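Sequence design from tokenized structure. All designs in this work follow the same two-part layout: the structure record, then the generated sequence. An example of the structure record is given first.
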């Protein structure tokens, strides 16, 4: 029976076993503890279960989770565990005694949100090999000055190293999506690439800057600063060497970090 797409959850099931093997090979998880998000029909799960020391697969769809429970409950060493739940809400670090790796074909609709959550939960995560929409991968790896550069690129650039991998075409899925996918390797850094002071402040600044991409920084980020620091806002942006007449997509991560450090010191 050809698996059907769960429209509500945005699942396009990977059916190409060769791609699945290449994903697991690239992840290099032999003998490691592994988290899989969204196992679906278990094409990755089967291979991961053979190679991982322990595997925890988190599946949101209760029907799929029930099928997976039956399929993998026969593991005599109890190395595979199926958790029915939302990867955006499950306490990921409670699933393992120590550090772990992540391997996943992420759903299109929630893939970006799951990636952001994994980055925020990065302590204890050794590496992530993920398949996402190719468009999302472009946003992850975008550099300042391009139209795809935004909050996701800034967050990933601050906290991780990202290596683009193989492009996967629609024919490797059922049902076939209308766009290409891509595999990426995301390796969390032990420390942020730049000192930002307070990370919540940094995220608030980046959000304010990209709230209106067509607006210059004086109007969006500058307005956010003036609400908090009044007439000192211009001086703070000057000290961070930010050109207020430029647009947010031109601002490098280190400039966001410099401003965040100043704001954090004043909070």
């Amino acid at each position: 029976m050809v698996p059907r797409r769960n429209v509500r959850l945005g699942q396009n099931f990977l059916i190409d076993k060769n791609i699945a093997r290449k994903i697991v090979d690239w992840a290099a998880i032999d003998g490691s503890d592994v988290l899989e998000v969204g196992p679906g029909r278990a094409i990755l799960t089967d291979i991961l279960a053979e190679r991982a020391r322990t595997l925890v697969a988190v599946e949101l769809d209760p029907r799929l989770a029930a099928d997976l429970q039956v399929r993998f409950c026969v593991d005599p060493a109890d190395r595979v565990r199926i958790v029915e739940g939302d990867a955006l809400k499950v306490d990921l670090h409670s699933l393992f005694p120590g550090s772990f790796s992540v391997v996943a074909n992420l759903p299109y609709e929630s893939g970006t949100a799951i990636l952001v959550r994994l980055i925020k939960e990065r302590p204890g995560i050794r590496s992530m090999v993920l398949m996402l929409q190719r468009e999302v991968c472009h946003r992850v790896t975008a550099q300042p000055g391009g139209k795809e550069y935004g909050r996701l690129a800034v967050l990933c650039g601050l906290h991780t190293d990202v290596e683009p991998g193989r492009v996967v075409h629609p024919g490797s899925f059922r049902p076939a999506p209308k766009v290409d996918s891509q595999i990426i390797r995301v390796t969390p850094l032990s420390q942020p690439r730049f000192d930002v002071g307070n990370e919540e402040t940094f995220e608030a600044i980046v959000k304010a800057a990209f709230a209106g991409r067509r607006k210059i920084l004086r109007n969006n980020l500058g307005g956010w600063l003036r609400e908090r620091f009044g007439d000192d806002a211009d001086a703070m942006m000057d000290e961070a060497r930010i050109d207020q007449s430029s647009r947010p997509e031109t601002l490098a991560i280190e400039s966001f970090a410099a401003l965040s450090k100043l704001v954090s010191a004043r909070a």
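Residues 253-266 form the longest helix (14 residues). We note this feature because it recurs in several other targets discussed in the main text.
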